[in-house]
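seq:
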Amino acid sequence: MWPLDPSRKEVLRFAVSCRVLTLVLQVLTRFLGSSTPIVYWFPAYLLQHQEPLLRSLETVPWKPLAEDSPPGQKVPRNSIMGLLYNWKTCSRVTRCILGYFLTYWLLGLLLHCNFLPWT
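struct:
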């Protein structure tokens, strides 16, 4: 065992504090993400009530299919993909919500593949 001088004690205390904080944050985000549907209900509510592109899809009696689309245009079956294709015409709330979830997904993908702590 090494002699514990003040600088090493501080480094050890800092390392342990960082590890505990990381574990607490990972466990909290796992619990909130997997057991609390409100985290997903609220953005869905905002998208449903404040995005005109989604409201226009609700009023159409038929769902547009990819096979029915004119040449050169993509009509997605998934409404989220439709929002991503029409990013510039989306409202600011929609862009913030989609940006948050896309950033969370991309950061999680990159950090998890590199064995860094991410939930």
